[in-house]
């Protein structure tokens, strides 16, 4: 059996059965298997492609197997998904895809499982991919479900993205936004301001003055030679940190807090900016292992940063009216980074949204309490879900009536090399993969009144 298919199957199966994350597990498995670069590329395409379009393949498999996928053994279902991806999206020769899948089924299951796999995949291969799509689309009755099928998203995610785009009057971009989730992002880097320069052959980012791509070279090698000052970072994340540090001029001695800092990408940029402006930075991260990643991320910046491991909802109340700037990069569903986390769309549920929104609301409340008079908080998510973005901010403003919204879009217009054209209601910014090529980050800047005696209103 081709080693690339074996690796892909192992990762896909670990994702379905033990909650593994493909973007973390796959690099380990590729290294263990010592695959050639070509085979590693193939294993990546097989893994990511199968996981992204899993819901679509499940519909096809249910047709071909004439039974719901819930009645198929877990391991055999994963073999079928991997086979369906090769037949429907990669145009691998039918006999190769079927034969290798039968081998996998034999090693993962039994003789009867191999026969079943053979039958189902042969049925799938006898119908053209475009015809399969026509069959599945013939079963749906509304536009949301049509897009859910054609772009391989759960319907609730399609509705969430539609709502977020509608808020920006961009509802007609829904199909483009969903299609962008299915394209692999290019690796993007940052040269920390004041500490490193972009390499000469780098391709500068469109918007971030410190961001670049390294089309010719190996980004991992480049990062290894950069002493912690050249880092992999999405352009949207760079802009989120810069929105906070550039919102108003920095006064020496300001106190800054990164409330949810792990794994530390934005903390490193904040630290470089704090160093340049003679500000002090504290970082906090609930999960100790992730706090250690923050310490590692900060290693390239010659600034002393204390890294704590408190629950951010409590830490902020212990330091009332203390910080001049707070970054709240909140834990979220990650619906704005689906192109990086291929399994995420099928794993997340609307229940996750309601649990996270409670936490996001408490963290923003706490951050506002911890702001010094005149201080600024940047509320950031890598999700465009309105429940995690605009509604959290509105609720915080109702609870803290003195807080003022800043025009985040105008702040970033002073930072970016090209206009972002990303204004969202209430002065916020909503970025999109299909528009800016970044993750779909939401960024809202809020300022506390200069002389605030304002008590928080109970919610
Ligand atoms: C979106 S990530 C932050 C990403 C980070 N700013 C970066 O750029 O690398 C959110 C982080 O919040 C942490 N977190 C979750 N609940 C928290 C809490 N109650 N207090 C502090 N941190 C929390 C998560 O462990 C996660 O590392």
Automatic annotation (TrEMBL):
InterPro entries reported for this sequence: MeTrfase_RsmB-F_NOP2_cat, MeTrfase_RsmB-F_NOP2_dom, NusB-like_sf, NusB_RsmB_TIM44, RCMT, SAM-dependent_MTases_sf
Name of protein: 16S rRNA (Cytosine967-C5)-methyltransferase
Positions of the catalytic residues: 382 (nucleophile)
Lineage per the UniProt record: Bacteria, Bacillati, Actinomycetota, Actinomycetes, Micrococcales
The entry's keywords: Methyltransferase, RNA-binding, S-adenosyl-L-methionine, Transferase
One GO term of the biological process aspect: RNA methylation
Pfam families: Methyltr_RsmB-F, NusB
GO molecular function (one): RNA methyltransferase activity
CDD domains given in the database record: AdoMet_MTases
Record-stated family: Belongs to the class I-like SAM-binding methyltransferase superfamily. RsmB/NOP family.
Residues binding S-adenosyl-L-methionine: 260-266, 285, 311, 329
PANTHER family assigned to the protein according to its UniProt record, in alphabetical order: NOP2 YEAST -RELATED NOL1/NOP2/FMU SUN DOMAIN-CONTAINING, RIBOSOMAL RNA SMALL SUBUNIT METHYLTRANSFERASE B-RELATED
Domain SAM-dependent MTase RsmB/NOP-type: 157-449
